[in-house]
Amino acid sequence: MKDINARIAALSPEQRALFEMRLKQKGLNSATIQSISKRKDTNSLPLSFNQQMLWFLHQLAPQSPVYNIPVAILLEGQLNVKALEQSLNQIRQRHEVLQTCFQMVEGQPMQERVADLTLEMPVIDLQEFAESKQQELVQKLAKQEAQCPFDISREPLLRVKLLRLRETKYVMLFTMHHIVSDAWSRGVIIRELAALYKAICSNQPSPLAELPIQYADFAAWQREWLQGEVLESQLSYWKKQLEGKLPVINLPTDKPRTDVQTFQGARRSLILPESLTKELKSFSQQQEVTLFTTLLAGFYILINWYTQQEDILVGTDVANRTWAETEVLIGFFINQLVLRTKVSDNSNFQEFLMQVREVTLGAYSHQSLPFSKLVEVINPARDLSRNPIFQVKFVLQNTPMPPLEIAGLTITVLDDVDNGTVPLDLLLDMIETDKGMAAMLRYNTDLFNVNSIDNMLKNLVQVLTTIIQNPTSTILEIKNNLTSFNRKQTESHKNQRKASEYQSLKKIKRKEVFLQ
């Protein structure tokens, strides 16, 4: 074991990142075995770096739901409503972060515990309505709940409502603020909910082990750990990656950009052909890169085609739970990474893929620097109409949560609820579903029309198809193929419109005119 640890320690940052990625692909735990100590002052609830950044962003738009995390959960079977409510309250009691609000204390944002109130779960009965009407009301209520802002200065940042469709069918609307949770937290909650519900229904004690630390312990530890040599080793990488004038992606928009960034958003999605999904996975394995890297490389080419810019910055999310103690916690751990790549027309795709791979591995090896700290150090020229550093994000969601069956109850997480916002110009989510790979594009509706977004999704599929069909193509050849594809699409639409107009003319009845 010592020899293995020594060999791992001798790996370069890029090799270490690739090693950890391969472990994750095999479903193995690659979390760092490192002790995060509990904070000495248990009454102190410090903010993490990213919590502090989100607090400031919230002050700019306190009535916006942009940082709400809504989840809809389908519950089928004989539901014990009281046991469900008790389970939720035990989760809130276990996780200190769900008992807090955020207030200004001596000019600084601080966490404070909310009075120990019982979490209430209102039940809305929809049984009297027909199934079609129920679906309409569920969507309406889910959207209302997702769009209802939190007052983070005074209320618990967790809300739950239960919609009763039948005696054996319910939908639970679960909403948290991002400042106390993230996507990983959703999985933690659902697993704990299942375990606690089963125990309560069986009159058994909680089967959950005591949490090793609380989120505030991590926040206090992070501030002590991220300084000196640790901080400098992270910063030196990012300073080099982001040196010089940072490029601003200038995507062609349908509407003029407003002076101050807005967060009005919508989403469009498209399912990739099953054969293309399989080929992308197979190709990635052959090239010894992750599926994320292949898809990201295709996305870079798409952006380059739209903007004609070579130097491109794209953001992405990482779970940032590389410490073993953090895996079981609810909290805001997720971090944003900046992936900077130059797209050259003369490179063939396989060469470009290796370039993207190196950028990705380097970023993952230096993922511990909070994005808020990076913005503070880089100090980019601020533009109130745009997000700092990057305006476009790419995320691969490849950890779907299967239905859980407990105590005669099936728990299924439904598709993400749309809260009608987006924090950037564009956010592309590639999602592995039971129906295949889906591309979901969230976009700012104050910048783009729906037709432009639908075309962008089609163009993405075309780029990925070209890559698979001929991976030795140059970037220029891939883009020329895309231009030709769009020209044919335009001509096809024109012909369809003309045919439609002709058919309409044929239906016009001739009016007889008699000459006297």
Automatic annotation (TrEMBL):
<dbReference type="Pfam" id="PF00668">
    <property type="entry name" value="Condensation"/>
</dbReference>
<dbReference type="GO" id="GO:0003824">
    <property type="term" value="F:catalytic activity"/>
</dbReference>
<protein>
    <submittedName>
        <fullName>Condensation domain protein</fullName>
    </submittedName>
</protein>
<feature type="domain" description="Condensation">
    <location>
        <begin position="44"/>
        <end position="479"/>
    </location>
</feature>
<dbReference type="InterPro" id="IPR023213">
    <property type="entry name" value="CAT-like_dom_sf"/>
</dbReference>
<dbReference type="InterPro" id="IPR001242">
    <property type="entry name" value="Condensation_dom"/>
</dbReference>
<dbReference type="GO" id="GO:0008610">
    <property type="term" value="P:lipid biosynthetic process"/>
</dbReference>
